What does this fold into?
Amino acid sequence: MPRLFTAIEVPEDIGLALSGYRGGLSGARWIDVENYHVTLRFLGDVDEGVAQEAAYLLGAIRRPPFDVAIEGLDAFGGARPRALIAKVAPSPAILELQAEHERLMRRAGLPAESRKFTPHVTLARLRDASPRAVADYLGLRGGPARLSFRAEQFVIYSSRDSVGGGPYVVEAAYPLR
It folds into this structure.
């Protein structure tokens, strides 16, 4: 069964700008630049029938391209930090696209996503990183000047089971038009 999720790919030039934040944080497992993306909906380990239904339903989406803006750095996990991220501005366009993905995946038979959607690019997964070290890292690094790019499509990615962080394979691409 493939492990699938939908996402917006991060262009190479934006990925290179974000890669400058790699290093300097103990307990960080840095994501390879070519695997940077903005996850829209995690599908999980699905059988071939559900994967095909999801791909078919996503093909019906008709939305125009939109700008994606990266606002700064942050971390998920609070007292137990689990990921270092680049925050993405929650524009109406990205929130509406994600909500449509959620509706369609529920129609395909998947359970509702339990976590609130927070658009972001994961830069590193954290293991045994202290909250203090993460706070110090964020305080020293500050974050990128506002970066932006145009989302022209979204994709379905597959990933290896229980690995996290890639490598990811584009299984289908859907233009925004």
In short: Strands lie at 3-9, 28-30, 37-45, 66-76, 83-88, 120-126, 147-151, 153-159, 168-175. The mean pLDDT is 94. Helices lie at 12-19, 48-58, 92-107, 131-141. The chain is about 25% helix and 35% strand.
